[in-house]
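Give me structure tokens for this 305-residue protein.
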Amino acid sequence: MKRDFLHITDFTADEIHETFALAREVKARLKNREDYKPFKDHTMAMIFAKPSARTRISFETGFFRLGGHAIYLGPSDISIGKREAVKDIARVVSRYNDVIMARLFSHEHGLELAQYASVPVVNGLTDYNHPCQIMADMFTILEHRGHLNDLKVVYVGDGNNIVNSWLRLAQRLPFHFVCACPENYQPDARTFVEAQQAGLSMVEVSHAPLAAVKDADIVYTDVWASMGQKEEAEKRKIEFQGFQVNDELMAATGKESLFMHCLPVERDVETTDSVVESPASIVFDEAENRMHAQNAILLKLCGKA
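Here you go.
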């Protein structure tokens, strides 16, 4: 029976831990240049409605290094939901490929793609969530801390698709998550309530970032205006005053916290250059681990684990 990875909650808690262990194993094998090609003679179609450097590089490189061939299909190749129906694209692309990765604007398009595809579909990002990113993030935290016990993650900024993914993870693994955001930029209300009702993690929304970051193990941020929101950038700079992750905010944690950002970063906007370049910053470990976490997800979905 085929499986998709559209939300972190598509995996059980045990499967998430298994994915972290597999990511660690595959990362070590690649570092050692082992002859490990589980995707030999396999192809992956990568459908991009929303361009991205890290998503394309990490998926394409990772799949290649595991013996497969990844095919980039940009907005001009497949105008998903415009030139051709999503369900038609799903069924045609499935006939040619072993797995599909899609980075889309519309989450509904991702759900429809998975519904009609006969091969596994991996969510490379939608406007609703970004599950591969948060899997890589938690794997990176595990690498640096050695465990996930008594973990407090404070996200500072827009309650966007990254936050929705953290709230999904909070339904599977126990930790303390706080979204410190301006009042008009809160996370998806339904997802927040579901995370609360799961009763596994403590989840909060705060509008006071300096207070919210107290005792944080991880301080996390993202751009204030994502792709498709750039016309709001100047307005958001005004509305997000006080939400910049700077040296003062990092000091307010009261402990040796780690700093994370899913990239790309607008330096001296949502965070300062000094924080990105500080010893607390693990943003480039996080970026590298996108490839390893995604490799592990693909291996599990394709029955190669």
